[in-house]
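**Archive record**
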Amino acid sequence: MVDTAIFIGDIATDDVKKIANRIVDILVSPGVIPGLINGALTVPLDLGYLAIGYFDTDSRFKHQTERIRMAEAIHNDILNYDHVTNAVEMIFEKFNKYLTISQQNSVYRGVVSSVAGRLVTAKIISSIGAAVLTRVSFIGAASANSWIGKVTMLLLIGGMAERSISVSEELAIKVPEIYQLLRPHDYDLSYFLFEPAVKPFVEAIHIAHQLGQPYFNKIIEIVESQLNVN
């Protein structure tokens, strides 16, 4: 979820630095991605969303409609590796559109000398896809070993569904340009699975979209500085 306070009036230097530093962390150390994904996909959190969905009677009908869309998306195998990585790739392609060729060269070559940006982002995208599938598979396997586990899994699926819908709704309100990018493919429903790993890139895109290229360039300048790009 993007903090909307960042985008009211002039953007604070500290906020720009935080976004830039998180981008650098992911570019330099894709190994942090499983930790980000694992931290986001937790049973207590999803059960919490289930409780919120149960008591939020005002949104129940709307969420039921979204559940139908989700069922159709799952039937179309939206949770497979290819769909997850396609969704992430769309976000990175949009991020790269705000980078000049010179910026792409300097940022990505700051990670690995002479490696093209597409190869660097491909590694990150594949890491995110693998981490999502590993975590979701682990939750499913761990929850289905007994009748108690199967009941827990049913509750968890309900909680994950509520969480998926809630995150999609937040995305539509707070970062509509990303929602509109993902929605035609129903990828907005799977966004919660990989949000932690793409969040700083999404925030940078939103800054560029709302405040303009100069503000986006501030972030990239800090990224270049952190990577010691000459």
